[in-house]
Design a protein that fits this description.
- This protein is an alpha+beta fold.
- It is globular.
- The longest helix is centred in the middle third of the chain and has 10 residues.
- InterPro entries: MIZ1-like_pln.
- This is Protein MIZU-KUSSEI 1.
Length: about 140
């Protein structure tokens, strides 16, 4: 997504965050999660585009660094996050902010899905972060 991590963290600190990824044109035979380019919205505000990317060697290194973590958020030091550019990191130079959580998937139709972040420690029981994929 085009939204810097620091902006997303600031939004989450102020309350619930709803991210909507919308696709206007449907291609024949393409599954919803295989769409390549999405228009993105964060709490109702346009925030650019999101692109589907394949996981490369550098991304696998980052995923391996957070593999022992089951839930939480934090910052990976520069040594573990050397693949991330400064602008994308949202932290100090070479650092990488991460968030790991359990998401509940709800399929509305072949053209709509939602992912709700579940926090078992939160007394309200509601999601702090919701991600919606919509195609028309």
């Amino acid at each position: 997504m085009a939204t810097p991590t620091s902006v997303l963290v600031r939004e989450m600190a102020s309350g619930l965050v709803r991210i909507a990824l919308k696709k206007n044109k449907k291609k024949q035979g393409i599954k919803l999660l295989e769409e390549g380019v999405w228009r993105s919205y964060c709490n109702g505000k346009k925030c650019g585009y999101a692109l589907r990317r394949e996981c490369g060697e550098e991304e696998w290194k980052v995923l391996q660094a957070v593999a022992p973590i089951t839930m939480g958020a934090g910052v990976l030091p520069a040594a573990a996050a050397e693949v991330v550019e400064k602008e994308e990191a949202g932290g100090g130079e070479g650092e990488l902010m991460y968030m790991r959580a359990r998401f509940e998937r709800v399929v509305g139709s072949k053209d709509s899905e939602a992912f709700y972040m579940m926090n078992p420690e939160d007394g309200s029981g509601g999601p702090e972060l919701s991600l919606y994929l919509l195609r028309s």
